[in-house]
Amino acid sequence: MASNAPVGKPTDMSAPHMPKVAGIDSTVPGPPHTTAPLPGVPAAAAPSEPVSPPGAMIQDRLASWVSDLTTLHELTERLIRTASLDEALREVLVAGSALVGARRGMAVLEPADGLGPASTIGLGLAHADLGTIETVPRGAGGYARLLDGLPDPVHPERVPDPIAIRDVRTEEGLDPRHREVAARLGYAASYALPLATEEAGRLGAAVWLYDEPAEPTDRQRHLIGLYGRFATEHLARLLQVERARVQVATIAEELLPSRLPRVPGVQLAARHRTNPRGGGDWYDALPLPEGALGLAVGSVSGTGPSALAAMGRLRASLRAYAVMEGEDPVAVLSDLELLLRLTEPARSATALFAYAEPARRRIVLAGAGHAPPLVIGERRTEFVETSLSAPLGMLSCWEAPSVELSPEPGETVLLYTDGLLRRTGDAMDRAFARLHAAASSVPRADRGDPGAVADHVLRAMLPEGLDTAVDGKDVVLLAARFD
Q1: Among positive and negative, which fits the CA dihedral 122, 125, 129, 135?
Q2: Is the pTM of this model over 0.90?
């Protein structure tokens, strides 16, 4: 005789013990199944609740677990492809919405160590809605309780439990402000999940909002719990990457000029985009005796802290050589070549140094393995013809002739590093053609502002920002407009 025991709660005699399958807990209730009456049993005599034979029940349970595994696999695959914290938080909300059956939600990133970064992302909620929810006092209920206080002093590794509010109108212990906000935004229930694990600690929380009184089923809770643990580990990795990127960017900016000098007859602007690993691209502008100005851009091979340190040493050395013999750019780069060869024989670098006399609108420059400058004006947009030279550190000695140019009033001389070309992903000849087209298309209204010129070129060359699929080159632009 078939047992009427509920599915998912087998007794000792009516159903066999079900093992765990690939991380899915077999004790979690499965979805209800219905079958036709057994052969030979009249419909009127059939049980009021159809019951599957034991074999069919096992197959249904296994099919349900396989479906769960497939769903989790697809959702985690989508999550693992995210490369930023905001993108990952948004994916967590979308996946969680499907798993718990809610239409709206929000995710809060607020690491417990207080080192940041902090972020709030909404799903189906406007920016004003997020601000309204955040007016609910901490500790008043919902996700805010997951972000409050210090870890348990007895069990500091303990992860907070999810918080389910089945009906905001009748839930006990809620702050009146919570009920007011729920009524204003039109949600009746919520389910809040901590983004925390023993290894990663507490990073924040995610909360999904139901339009009607509801709460997740046991199976939905189980699936969102599995997904949440994976998501927290992924967020922890992205958090480490983001903090490292911020540190690298801060160090790089500290090694570059804090502000550009003001020299009569010329206006200056610089743009610097750092890759997450930290590249060795740099720029400099320093006033020289008799109203002259030294302009330099360069790139050191490698990425990371060692490249940043080498960049700092190279830039400081060039400044010293420029003060002593800046009117001769060839001598400046020759000294730099000797220094690099003696002190860092395993490293190479490119550099371009220009000695400018704004009052005379005269520039003398020399380059070592560096891309040629670009002159942008009303009647011309052309590359400066510099001599072909190997990078610094590539030859036993370096020396190449300098070139001289005289920009017209209102023309801008644009110096840049090869990261601007390589980050496009194009071949170098196409990248140069693209740069020329970008410079030629600078609007007439922007040509009087070197910063606007640099911004236009940067947007035209890299409309979607730095391409992370290309090598870790920085991007530097230094624009000088002559009056």
Answers
A1: negative
A2: no
